[in-house]
Write a structure and sequence with these properties.
The chain is of the alpha/beta class. Helices cover about 40% and strands about 10% of the residues. It has ten helices and six strands, in the order H-H-H-H-E-H-E-H-E-E-H-H-E-H-E-H. Helix 4 packs across helix 5. The two termini are about 25 Å apart. The N terminus is likely disordered.
Length: about 280
């Protein structure tokens, strides 16, 4: 299953496997009686299941969330950066935080937005927010949307997909947004977000920056530096790989191939790995 995230709620409680099998049998019976519509496989492969804020976080994610919430409460941090490789659960943590902040009484009067740079993912997140009690599709924003008003807290998923004024199809509207905020086109969408929010929570992966219009790590880090010197920036890293069966070792192997630093073949009983130099020999 493409969306299955093993490990998010994978507690090995007493007779777990036995209960899992019984639950599957029970669910199939409910399907036959037409009391439920979708199979377990369809549910687990849905976007709502993948990004649900009701999932149990792993220890790494939970520790990050607890500390982030504490920093927001103390108001001694105005920028929070969560680094993580693909499959480490950045979006899951982002949705979890958004749901928590929206539900929490002490943040009821705060203007909170959830920024998603990618159009396709933004559409998906709007559908998901519509399905989650307490969240609204209108809370899911594009970078352009946030130029319209100020926010107390902005969470930015896939912050590495924010753009600068270079090689983009919307240079006209980009320039207008910069002018609206009193900025030049030397600024980028990250500058818009920082300017329009009192507290900015950024989910970022330097390895996923795409093309020259993206915000590479050097540019990103430079923008964080001023507040870091004032002890106003907090960094967190999500380390646990939950999307692939090979875990972090497999991801590190793939990275080493692209970085031309690979020193040996990846070995695992989870994969039958073969590398071809000629596509037609596959």
């Amino acid at each position: 299953m493409t969306n299955k995230n093993s490990g998010i709620a994978d507690k090995q409680y007493y007779k777990k496997q036995e209960y899992d099998k019984k639950f599957e049998l029970l669910w199939r019976k409910l399907q036959r009686e037409k009391l439920v519509k979708h199979s377990l496989e369809e549910i687990e492969n849905s976007d709502l299941f993948k990004y649900s804020p009701y999932k149990e976080l792993n220890d790494n994610q939970r520790n990050a969330v607890e500390t982030i919430i504490q920093r927001i409460r103390e108001e001694d941090t105005n920028r929070i950066v969560i680094n993580g490789m693909p499959g480490s659960g950045k979006t899951i943590v982002a949705v979890y935080l958004m749901k928590y902040l929206t539900d929490c009484e002490e943040f009821q009067n705060k203007q909170i937005g959830f920024v998603v740079p990618q159009t396709s993912l933004r559409k998906t997140m709007k559908i998901i927010f519509k399905s989650i009690y307490g969240l609204r599709p209108s809370q899911v924003l594009s970078p352009s949307d946030i130029t319209k008003k100020k926010y107390d807290i902005l969470l930015v998923d896939e912050a590495h997909r924010l753009h600068q004024y270079k090689n983009i199809s919307y240079m006209g509207s980009f320039k207008k947004n910069c002018e609206k905020l009193g900025l030049t086109t030397e600024a980028d969408e990250l500058d818009w977000i920082i300017k329009q929010s009192d507290c900015t929570i950024l989910f970022y992966d330097a390895m996923q920056v795409v093309g020259p219009s993206g915000i590479d790590y050097q540019r990103f880090d430079q923008k964080m530096q001023n507040s870091l010197e004032q002890r106003m920036t907090s960094y967190f890293t999500l380390l646990t790989q939950m999307r692939v069966q090979g875990g972090n070792a497999y991801i590190d192997f793939v990275k080493s191939i692209f970085e031309e630093s690979c020193t040996g073949k990846y070995k695992s009983d989870k994969y039958d790995l073969k590398i071809y130099l000629d596509f037609f020999k596959i």
